[in-house]
Amino acid sequence: MFEVEPGVRKQRQARPAVGDKRFRAFDPHQVLLPPSLDDWLPEGHLARFVADLVDEVLDLSPVLADYTEKRGYPPYDPRLMVRLLIYGYTTGVRSSRAIERRCVDDVAFRFLAADQAPDFRSIARFRRRHLDALAGLFTQSLHLAMRLGMVKMGRVALDGTNLEANASKHKAMSYGRLIDKEERIEVEIAALEAKAASLLDEAEATDTAEDQSFGPDGKHVDLPAELDRREKRLAKLQAARAQIEAEAAEKARAHAEEKERRRQERAGTSDEQAVADAGEEAAGKARPKPKAQANFTDPASRIMKNSDGAYMQAYNAQAVVDEEHQVITAADVTTNASDAANYTPMLDQSAHNTGTHPKQALVDAGYCSEANLEAAKDRQLTCGTNTFMATGRLGHDEQVPPAPRGRISKDATLKERMARKLRTKPGRAAYSRRKAIVEPVFGQIMTCQGGRQLLLRGEEGARSEWRLLAACHNLRKIFRHAGTAGLAASVG
């Protein structure tokens, strides 16, 4: 931008004088690293806890049992890979590519990998291959927390949250559009087939006509490729349509069977064949709603509404959380946006995992249904679990009104009895703890562990990844509660 005389070079400015001030020695060309990776991390670091956990505590036999082939190039040690995945899922670094980069850039990852750097394909293949075993770490983390006295099962809270699927909602199509699109593609395929047949007839008539139709070096229009593309698209549409129809039939069957069972209970009879016949008849007559959708990227995921009222392609993640240290005692994933169907299965899973039933269970209004109120009544009689189930949603800053005086009517419904129970002083005190128990857990998984969106597709993939996230949440709680010293004590 400015003229400079030839031969005149800009002189480097000298460092300003600072008098007699002395600085610490600094030589950019001399880099001294500790002689051992063990010296790179401070004592009490989370990475040290993960290393001890994998090497000394966790049972990796389900992973090791999968390696039966002696031939081939030696794979990475499973302990190394499990270390990286646990630490990654605990700190929010879940992508295989991100883990690969951290094994080069991050001291903690380099420590856990013993200065090795598995490529992202190896990490992704290991996770997919041993997905069930990695999901099984959830029960191991829970049992470890129980050995440390962190799970009391006095009061638990059950809740669900939507996890974004690894699929765009824009890749979904409604049943009505599926039928319309399917018909249009069938017409296009028929037109292309007719055009191809016409061109072949002309080609067979004369070589000159063939050159004119297809060109000297081939066809101007690649009809086979066009047909193949449309036929594949048609196959995807037909598969999505079949999925929606099968789900509608299954839903109708379940509803009809439940209705027939209730009718037989009122009549005092029992006929399973009649129940099956009612379900089969309803399934045969079932027709999907025009707005029922299927996603082409992840067909198992569903359109669900989040807490902000926005629609997203998601799975419904469920968790039962113990009050004492916010340890997750049960974790599962469903494709149903409603929470109501998960009350009994989740509490049963929690009891199975811990070996005991909680004294109190707190659930919000999303689980309230006639069937669940009946199940809560039976559970208190058989298992001793006192359920506090909200019967309706309160507005912002709205307080639960006090219970009316006097005895409750003998004709009161289960819902009215539960509403009365929540309005008592003990009921209000117990239910007020629900948010403080379970919602911070979801917040910690979403923010600290980056678990807002799933990486794996399919219901089984989503379930396994959610349980791995739950396992890492429990391990973080154990680390904060006991640290490495507590871990060694529990092993001993």
From TrEMBL:
It holds the Pfam family DDE_Tnp_1. Residues 248-269 have a biased composition (Basic and acidic residues). Residues 203-224, 246-295 are annotated as: Disordered. InterPro entries: IS1182_transpos, Transposase_11, Transposase_InsH_N. Residues 36-129 form the Transposase InsH N-terminal domain. GO terms for molecular function: DNA binding; transposase activity. It comes from the Bacteria. One of its GO terms (biological process) is DNA transposition. Residues 305-475 form the Transposase IS4-like domain. This is IS1182 family transposase. It comes from Mangrovactinospora gilvigrisea.
